[in-house]
Amino acid sequence: MPEQPTRTLNDGNKIPLLGLGVWQVPNGRECVDAVRWALELGYRHIDTAQAYGNEESVGQALRASGVPREDIFITTKFFPRRRDPVAEAEQSLRRLGVEQVDLYIIHWPQGGPSWAWAGMERARELGYSTSVGVSNFSVEELDQVTVAGSVVPAVDQVQFSPFEFRRGLLEECERRGVALEAYSPLGTGGHLGHATVREIAERLGRTPAQVLIRWCLERGIPVLPKSTHRERIEENGQVFDFALSEEDLAALDALDRTGGTEAARERKWW
Ligand code: A2P
After folding, report:
1. Number of helices and strands (H, E) in the chain?
2. Contact call for residues 134 and 142 (beta carbons, < 8 A)
């Protein structure tokens, strides 16, 4: 894998565009292996969360990989059913076995979008995280954080793919200097069999997963495919040696089912 392309966030921090997501990977061997393989294969960005319960395994894999800490971008997320982002960050750092993470984000706007932001800013001031941001926030929720705080969120991590092409949210994020990050870029696997995606993949001699990941990269959007299989982690990383044409991008854009929404979720779990 070539050197990982990055995007510069609004605070000057650089985020590698490709990251491994470890949502729903249980703490233990499976998670350690996935993260270790990803690092071996050249990934330099791992996305975990307090709610995933697997930060210990991520930390174990970081150490086992032998890759220098400063070469790896680590994101974790504040679990908003807890009260204190600072205290929870301290626990995350202990579990991960690192002195700071690169990005710390509010996992979802439980109890309102802005109450936790002062604690997030404090965690940043204390050096627990280089950047702070949010996840699953709509445009309106982003604005409430910005009004309440002194730091603009560096990112808004949302479910994003051609099928969830939240054009309104993307445009408003860009206007505010917030980097939208894509989770579930493969629709948790559900988008891989779609005829349009498959047709493009076959014509280009690539795989459906690579086409969906590349669609994000073409827009400079950090993208977080999840897999626990070595060969798929490798496949998902081989996305820097081809491009999608304007026609193929447009055909994928047309798959949007959100109506170009400014919302982060159609269905909320909180
Ligand atoms: P697994 O973890 O068993 O490899 P998303 O990133 O949208 O959340 O999608 C993750 C889902 O897609 C997981 O079920 C994962 O399965 C599957 N997946 C990830 N990469 C690939 C791939 N290259 N080919 C097929 N399925 C994949």
Report:
1. 10, 10
2. yes
Smallest CA separation from ligand 1 atom 2, residue: 227
> Per DSSP, what are the bridge partners of residue 223?
18, 182
Atom of ligand 1 nearest to the CA of 212: 7
Q: For residue 142, what is the enclosing H or E element?
A: helix 139-148
Which residue has its alpha carbon closest to ligand 1 atom 23? 232
Whether this prediction's pTM lies above 0.90 is answered by yes
201-231 per-position pLDDT tens digit: 999 999 999 999 999 999 999 999 999 999 9
Is the separation of the CB atoms in 13 and 131 below 8 Å? yes
Ligand 1 atom with least separation from CA of 21: 6
Ligand 1 centroid to Cα of residue 110, in Å, is 27
List the one residue out of 137, 174, 143, 177 whose CA is nearest residue 159.
Answer: 137
Q: For residues 210 and 201, is the Cβ–Cβ distance under 8 A?
A: yes
Q: Whose CA is nearest to atom 15 of ligand 1?
A: 227
Over residues 100-150, the pLDDT tens digits come to 999 999 999 999 999 999 999 999 999 999 999 999 999 999 999 999 899
Residue recorded with tokens 């495919």: 225
| All domains of the chain in start order, with CATH | 14-191+222-230 (3.20.20.100)
Query: Which atom in ligand 1 lies closest to the alpha carbon of residue 185?
Result: 7
User: For this structure, is 104 an active site residue?
Assistant: no
* Tokens encoding 192: 């891989």
What residues are in contact with ligand 1 under a 6 Å CB criterion? 21, 184-189, 192, 207, 209, 225-229, 232, 235-236
